[in-house]
Structure formats: C-alpha cells, structure tokens
Amino acid sequence: MILASASPRRLELLARLGIVPDAVDPADCDETPHKGELPAIYARRIAAEKAALVAARHPGQIVLAADTVVACGRRILPKAESADQARACLTLLSGRRHRVLSAVTVVDVGGMARHRLSISVLTFKRLGAAELNAYVAGGEWEGKAGGYAIQGHAESFVKHLSGSHSGVMGLPLFETRALLDAAGAAHG
C-alpha cells in the first residue's frame, strides 16, 4: 500500500489501524480552490487528484490519499503559512462553529477509485488575546488547515466536537478502514 501523503499525522493514524505503508509518495498537485468551489467538493476533488497522480506512478498498488479542509460557512480556510494567517483563522473560528471535512480516496490494484467524506462539526470557545497570542507564538499552527492542530494545544479550544476526531487530525479512521477493506488491503 502506498500513502500519497507526507503527513506524519496520517502515518501515525494508519498505525492505529495496524498499517505501515510499503511506501510514502506524496502527491504534488495544485491545491488552489476553484472559484466558488464548496468545501466538500474541494476536499473530494483534491483527495481524488492526489490518489490518481500517485496511482499512475505505482500501477497495481493500493494507493491511499486524503485531504482535510477547515470550513467556516462556505469559506475554505487556508493552511496557515504565517503567524498573521494563523491569527486571522483562529480569530474567525473563536466562539464559532466550523466544519472539518476529511476526504479519503483509495485506488485498488485494478485502478478503481473509491471515495469517502467525513464531516465533523466543532465549536471553539471564545479565545482571549493572551491564549491566542500564546498559541500563535508556539508555532503549532504551521501548515495546518485553519491554523490549528487538534492533536496539540488547540484541543483545549474545542468546546464541542461532533464527528471524527481522527478526521479532524487528517485521516478519518472509520472511513479509511472501510475503503481499505473494500480495496482488499490487509491490515491489523
């Protein structure tokens, strides 16, 4: 099985299923949302594109790809690349509900792609200036969708979570197991 992701979190989550990929081959695709593209459609499209790119490089192998999107309403929040961007995302999410959409695509040995989407709804507590500044200063937000990582200090911001904790981390395990089972992948 080939993991089409460089994410250490996805490797860690796969290990919870007893799976160690035979190879890690990150897909390099344009992740720019199309104009007016809705978050669920975007997440599914990116996961499918990543899987197709990597499957083309590894014919006859099972390929797993995923994409995780943080959405506030119809707005897709970026993967924070700067402290200012992280602060803007977290300020937007402070005291509000938002969704985390994790799309998974698995391509089986015959080249058939199967897709699943996990949607989690989270409510953040209202963030005070001091805790927002401390979180941003810690750097945990770097490269994270919506400017936070639930598996770190930001977990204490979550007032309510309905859905998949592993999906918010980047790989919904229930959906992933179902897709790997359908593809005939062996796991623990």
**What is the H/E order?**
EHEHEEHEEHEHH
Number of strands: 7
Largest sheet descriptor: 7 strands, mixed
The structural class is alpha/beta
Quote the beta fraction: 15-25%
| Count of separate structural domains | 1
Shape: elongated
Q: Over all CA atoms, what is the radius of gyration?
A: 16 Å
| Low-confidence blocks of residues | none
Give helix % range.
Answer: 25-40%
Instruction: Average the pLDDT over all residues and give the rounded result.
Output: 95
| Number of helical stretches of at least 4 residues | 6
Q: For the record, what CATH class applies?
A: Alpha Beta
List the main descriptive attributes of the protein structure presented here.
single chain; elongated; Maf protein; alpha/beta; seven-stranded mixed β-sheet
What is the secondary structure topology, with strand pairs?
Elements: E1 2-3, H1 8-16, E2 23-24, H2 39-57, E3 63-72, E4 75-76, H3 83-93, E5 97-107, E6 113-124, H4 129-138, E7 158-162, H5 165-169, H6 173-183
Parallel strand pairs: 1-2, 1-3
Antiparallel strand pairs: 3-4, 3-5, 5-6, 6-7
Structure description:
This protein has 188 residues and is α/β, with parallel strands linked by helices. It has one domain: Alpha-Beta Complex (Maf protein), CATH 3.90.950. The protein is 35% helix and 23% strand. It has helices spanning 8-16, 39-57, 83-93, 129-138, 165-169, 173-183; strands at residues 2-3, 23-24, 63-72, 75-76, 97-107, 113-124, 158-162. Strands 1, 2, 3, 4, 5, 6 and 7 form a seven-stranded mixed β-sheet that branches. Helix 3 (83-93) crosses helix 4 (129-138). The longest helix is centred in the N-terminal third of the chain and has 19 residues, at 39-57. The radius of gyration is 16 Å and the shape is elongated. The chain starts with a strand and ends in a 5-residue tail after the last helix.
